Amino acid sequence: MKTQDSKSKENIQKFEEKRFFSKISKTIDKYGMIAAGDRILVGISGGKDSLALLKSLAWKKTASRISFDIIAVYIDILKIPYQANIDYISQLCQSHGVEFIHQQINDDVDLSGKVKPPCFVCSWDRRKHLFALSTSLNVNKLALGHHLDDAVETLLMNMMYQSNISSIPPKLSMFNNTLEVIRPLIETPEKEILRFVETQDFKLMLKTCPFEKVSSRQFVREILSQMETKYDRAKINILKSMDHISTEYLVQSPIILESSQKQSNIDDVEQ
Fold this sequence. Notes:
Elements: H1 4-30, E1 39-43, H2 48-63, E2 69-77, H3 86-95, E3 99-105, H4 118-136, E4 141-143, H5 148-162, E5 171-174, E6 179-182, H6 190-198, H7 216-230, H8 234-241, H9 254-270
Parallel strand pairs: 1-2, 1-4, 2-3, 4-6
Antiparallel strand pairs: 5-6
Helix pairs in contact: 1-2, 1-6, 5-7, 5-8
């Protein structure tokens, strides 16, 4: 027989799941991320974001009127010093009727940081193997667990270090439109994912990555955290600003300006 505390916990969990899954579902529908007949490969790291993504897609599959397939994969690069809870991920996938693939890779990755930051090397190596698997498994969508904070951090990092205004889009077609990368968590702040995870019984990393606190991304996180102390919607508005760009009020080189003005004149004539 359930106690009052257990009933209360269960009610909170159901409420939080409905709220969270509904938000992710709206993002999926808004950007047209999933269509009937899709075969979706989900990149699993074993952390909170990828597990939240997996459960959200499994819920979407159950609640949706359209039929699509989900395959979860964990790319285990043996020389990267962190460890996911493989047994738990496998059990979670099985409980939701999702096929799970555990692929071990023995790549010779350079983690010295002398050429590229370790986080970049690790991320790119995993992505490379995900792309290869997408082809061999004949999937047409690759779902990744990037959230709102990731998108805003990437925007600021690219501006600071690359003098480039770009980020990670909700969906991106690749390889002559044979594969589309989708990010269903892109409009969800990390704090909302953390709140959702608190209601779940997720078993996260057995061993965390030693590089996660020393990347340049951590520095940008601290800047954004300071922004939020001044205005709590700072991250949300920075994300939205990427959809509201007033190019006429940006500093642009004369060549770009001239090209833009010529195109504007052509458009005027055509109208």
